[in-house]
Specification:
By secondary structure, this protein is mostly beta strands. The protein has one helix and eleven strands. The protein has one helix at 2-12; strands spanning 32-41, 50-59, 64-65, 69-70, 74-81, 83-88, 94-97, 101-104, 110-114, 122-131, 138-139. The strands form three sheets. Strands 1-2-10-5-8 form a five-stranded antiparallel beta sheet, covered by helices on one side. It has a four-stranded antiparallel beta sheet with strand order 3-9-6-7, with no helix packed on it. Strand 1 (32-41) and strand 2 form a beta hairpin. The longest helix has 11 residues, at 2-12. The radius of gyration is 16 Å and the shape is globular. It holds the Pfam family Cupin_2. Residues 1-18 form the signal peptide. This is Cupin type-2 domain-containing protein.
Length: 148
């Protein structure tokens, strides 16, 4: 029931949040674009301190992301149009098509996201259920820090 409630919240309004860092030499436009949809603290007393963050991820035709990362929250993805391949824990990717939804457990290693379609972009509504103080995105191999 709670899942249905926050899905309804996400679809209530559709109005750029970058969830990933993509840097490729010679590429001027990021093949993964994110548009914020809604961020809302939940009001159920049992969910105090949780918020729903949602965004639409657009993946360019043929684009692949292999930047391993984790989300310190539960993540649902609903394919609005196209097809997306999702790989978790370096396992074989699973394909999801328009109208299908996937789920990523909190802190599972997300090792692949790809649009196998070469002729059109894929759009996915991402729904993050995040507890206050947790990170929505953490790279698996953070950049080394420099000492001063």
């Amino acid at each position: 029931m709670r899942t249905i409630i926050f899905l309804l919240l996400a679809f209530a309004s559709i109005p750029s949040i970058a969830q990933h860092e993509h840097t490729k030499a010679g590429v001027t436009a990021d093949p993964f674009q994110f548009q914020a949809v809604r961020s809302e603290w939940l009001t159920d007393a049992d969910l105090k301190g949780y918020k729903l963050e949602s965004s639409v991820m657009t993946i360019a035709p043929g684009a692949t992301d292999t930047v391993s990362h984790r989300h310190d929250c539960d993540l649902f993805g609903y394919v609005l149009e196209g097809e997306v391949q999702i790989g978790l824990d370096h396992a074989a990717p699973v394909a999801y098509k328009t109208g299908q939804m996937f789920f990523e457990k909190r802190n599972v290693l997300h090792s692949l996201a790809a649009n196998p379609l070469r002729d059109r972009p894929t759009r996915v509504l991402l729904l993050f259920l995040i507890k206050d103080g947790r990170n929505a995105y953490t790279p698996e191999y953070p950049a080394p820090t420099t000492k001063k």
